[in-house]
Amino acid sequence: LRVNQDEPMEDYPLKVEGGKEDDSSSGTRRFGMGQTTKDQMRTNVINEIISTERDYIKHLKDICEGYIKQCRKRADMFTEEQLKTIFGNIEDIYKCQKKFVKALEKKFNKDHPHLSEVGSCFLEYQTEFQIYSEYCNNHPNACMELSRLTKVNKYVYFFEACRLLQKMIDISLDGFLLTPVQKICKYPLQLAELLKYTNPQHRDFKDVEAALNAMKNVARLINERKRRLENIDKIAQWQSSIEDWEGEDVLVRSSELIYSGELTKISHPQAKSQQRMFFLFDHQL
Questions:
Q1: Residues 259, 280: contact at Cβ < 8 Å?
Q2: pLDDT band at 4; cut points 50, 70, 90
Q3: Per-domain boundaries in the chain
Q4: Mean pLDDT of 25-48
Q5: Residue 5: what pLDDT?
Q6: What share of the chain is helix, strand, coil (3-state, %, to 5)?
Q7: Number of continuous H segments (helices) and E segments (strands) in the chain
Q8: What is the DSSP letter of 3?
Q9: What does the alpha-carbon distance between residue 61 and residue 94 come to, in Å, rounded to a whole number?
Q10: 30 with 22: CB under 8 angstroms?
């Protein structure tokens, strides 16, 4: 990911013709055809963003066409419900990413890549990227369903045939399905790298800075939703483990268990004491 890690950024002075140090107004050393090293670094990051995006689109296309299409032809092996569990909303993600990569390519300056202004693309798509939340939340179910199916040989052979027909690299389907989860986490890293090599005077600076915060928020939101769903699941399991439950479900009012522990209940007037387990939820005890 860190495309420039082999090129140290210490501002050591560069000797230029006549033995004088390069003291250009930009304050950054020159590189190649009058380009500063910082510009070259920015070019590297921009190229990296565009090329990884194109690879990712191909990857999504392979999953949608190589696996989902083939699975739909086999109603004897897969129900639509099963396909929804295994692949989640990856087809929606594919549609969204196709539009996103087109937007990126429009902003790509072929002659001077370092001048490309890509920050606005991320800002424009920040709300659309929230569809990854559904995918990430569903991913554990996808893994469980796949693990169940791949205990049966005919499914193992079927998935392998899909992979070979689509000429995909030798990774199992669950490996391919992990990519969107990794992708949405990589955007803040790529944007942080881009910001590092964008001069504050650059027309893209403010947008890249805002895009970095926006994509961090998207990742945070996805994690938060995932955590909430896990908490809800825990509460439902906890309640179902209690015999003769009375009253409304805990989930009607609460979505998080905050603390649990033993308390002593003292009943007056005899001051009898009894040990009780208490559970503190976000809206009730």
A1: yes
A2: low
A3: 39-239, 253-279
A4: 70
A5: 53
A6: 60, 10, 30
A7: 9, 4
A8: T
A9: 7
A10: yes
